[in-house]
Amino acid sequence: MSEVYAARRARLRDRAQAGGSQSALVTNPANVRYLAGPAPQGTVLLLGKRDDTLVCTDPLDERPPEGRPDEALRIQTLPGPGGDPAVAAADLAAAHGAESMAVEEHHLTVTRHRALRSVAPTLRLTDIGGAVEQLRVVKDEEEISCLRIAAEIADQALGELLESILVGRTERHLALELERRLVDHGAEGPAFATSVATGPHSGRRGHRPTDRRVEEGDFLSVCLGATYRGYRCEIGRTFVIGTSPADWQIELYDLVFAAQRAARESLSPGAAYRDVDRAARQVLDSAGYSEGLAALTGHGVGLEIDEEPQLAPAAMGKLDACVPVTVEPGVHLPGRGGVRIDDTLVVRPEADGGPELLTITTKELLAL
Amino acid sequence: MSEVYAARRARLRDRAQAGGSQSALVTNPANVRYLAGPAPQGTVLLLGKRDDTLVCTDPLDERPPEGRPDEALRIQTLPGPGGDPAVAAADLAAAHGAESMAVEEHHLTVTRHRALRSVAPTLRLTDIGGAVEQLRVVKDEEEISCLRIAAEIADQALGELLESILVGRTERHLALELERRLVDHGAEGPAFATSVATGPHSGRRGHRPTDRRVEEGDFLSVCLGATYRGYRCEIGRTFVIGTSPADWQIELYDLVFAAQRAARESLSPGAAYRDVDRAARQVLDSAGYSEGLAALTGHGVGLEIDEEPQLAPAAMGKLDACVPVTVEPGVHLPGRGGVRIDDTLVVRPEADGGPELLTITTKELLAL
C-alpha cells in the first residue's frame, strides 16, 4: 500500500506547488486516511517540501482498529495533551522554512484558521479547496474491491432481516438489528445511521428511526450500509408488509423503480452528472411528482458515505470510469408514506459490460 | 418550554448586543437545539432585532423524532434544495436592515464564512465565540432530570450486560449489545460510540471496539452513555474476567478508584476546574503513573457528550452548582491493559448533600 499512498501524496504535492504553495496541510479526516492510511482520530497530514509528517494528538488517543498509517511517513506526537495537531503542523512547516502552506478552508473553522496564522505569522496560508476530494473521485480496483465487500455485507444483513418477523417491531429496533448483523458479517460498523421508515415515514430520505411499530399494510423502507476497511456503501429497498400491496402502492413502487432503472442505465463514462439526475427526475415529473423530490438522485461513495460527485440538477461535470455512485430516487407522500430504491454502482465502460451493480438484493416489490 | 427557550434567546441577544451586534447567527447544532428546541439537521437560528427565525433546509430533510422546535419561532425553509441555511440567514438579516451579525467562528468553516460575507457584503460579521456554550454550562432542573433518566438507562444496560456470558465475545459485539439495550430502555440512542476494551486494550480512553474476544483473566473496561431528550450522560467501569483478579489488577484498580473518589469529593461550587483534575492526578502521580495520563480528568455533559467545562491541568474557571460533569481518571499500561472508572455527577452545594451521583452502578471490582 505504501507506494499507493506515496503516489497520492505526490499528486497532491503537485497540485499544491502548482498553486504556489511549498507545503500543504490536510485536516479533513477522510482525506488524511486517503493519503496516509488509517490514523488516530484528530491526526493531520503535513506535506513538506521534502518529507511528509503525520501529526497526532497525545498517544493515549484511540487508534483505529482497522490498521496503521503508512510507514513511510514521519510521525510526530503533540508534546502537550489537548493541543491542536494542525497548529503544531503549521509551526513545523514554518520551522522547516516553508513560506506558504495550502490548507483545507472548507474544513478548517475560522477560529482554527486564525490559530494557524498566529502560531506561524510568516507562513502564507492559501486554500487548496477540494483538491483531495477530487483525487478521491475515481477509485482504483483495490478501493472498489473494498466497496464490493461492503456491499456484500449490507446485502447479507438486509437478506437476514427479511426472513425475520417484522410486524410489531419498532423502527429503532430494526435499525439496531441491521447494524448488529452488519458487524456479524465483518463490517467495521455501519456506513451511516441506518434508516428504517414504516408507514407514513416510508420513502423519506435520511429518516431517523422512531418508536413507530411495523403494521400490516405498511410500506417499509430501509436504507443501510457497511463500512469495510474504511469504505462505505449504501443500499435502500422498500417492501410492503402483509399479503398483498394496495394498488397505489404497486403503482408508486413501479414508478420509482422505473425512475431508478432509468438513472442506472444512464450511468456511463462521459455522462453528465445532471443527465443521470434528469433521467430519474423526468420519470417522476411525468407522473406528476415534481414537487418535493429530494435534492439529488445519487452521490459518490468511498471513504465517506456522501462524497463527490453529486447527481443533482445543477451539478457540473461528467462521470468517469471507476466512479462508484448511489442511485436512490424516491417519492414520499406526506401522511401516506412512499418508496425509495437505492443501489451502489460503479461506472464502467460499455465494453466492460456497463455499470457494475454492487448491491444485488432484489428490487422486486416483496410482500413480507 | 417555550418560555425557557425565549429566556435563553433573550440572554444571548443581550450578549450579542453588548458586543455591538444587532443580530446573531447560531449554527452549532447543539446550540440551535438549546435555544430553539429540536430542529431538523442543518437548521440554523437567526436572532434578529425583533423576531427570531429558524432557517431549515428543504422540507424533505429528516425531522428529529424527539420533538418539534419552539412554536414561538418563525420558520423559514430554503427555497431551493442543497443550499446553505446560514447563507440564507445572512441574506435575511441584511434584508431586515441589520448592519452587523455575530457568528460562531469556532463552528463556521473559512469557506462558509466567506459565503456569508459575499451574500451580504454590507453585513459586518463579528465573533460571538462560545457564548451559547457558556450559557449551557449551568443546567436547570428540567435538563438535570433528563440527564438523570439518561444515566438510569445506561446503568440498566450495563447491569444487564454483567449478567450475561462475556468470555469469547468480541469487543464489537459487546458494544452493539450495550447500544441495543440502551434503546430497549428508552434511549434515543447511544450518547457516543460505546467503548468496550478487553485485555491489553482495557483502560484506554475512547478505545474503539475491535474483534478481540474477552479472555479469562482480562481486565474489561466499558464506557457507554444514553441520549434522552437530547441529553447525554456517560458511565465507565472496569471489571476483571474470571474467578480472582491478579495482585497487579487489584492494586491498579484500587489506585484508580482512589483517584476517582478524590476527584468526586473535590466537586463543589467554587472549586477550580484544575483542582478537581489535580485531586485525581496527584493520587496517580504519587504512585508513579504521571506519564501518559489522559489530558483531562473529566468534562461537562449535556446536549453534547463533551462540553464545557474541561477538568484539566490548564483549565481556567470554577465550578458552579447544577453543572453536570464526568469524573473519569484511568491508567493504561501498554501491552498489559488498565483501569478506567467514569461517573456523571451534578455539582451541588454541601447544604444539598454535595455532588449528586447520576451513574449508580457499583464501583467495587467485580470478577465476572
From TrEMBL, chains A, B:
CDD domains per record: APP-like (cd01092)
Residues of the Creatinase N-terminal domain: 8-138
E.C. numbers: 3.4.11.9
Spans annotated as Disordered: 191-211
Keywords assigned: Aminopeptidase, Hydrolase, Protease
Molecular function terms, GO-annotated: aminopeptidase activity
Listed SUPFAM superfamilies: Creatinase/aminopeptidase, Creatinase/prolidase N-terminal domain
Annotated protein name in UniProt: Aminopeptidase P family protein
Organism: Streptomyces prunicolor
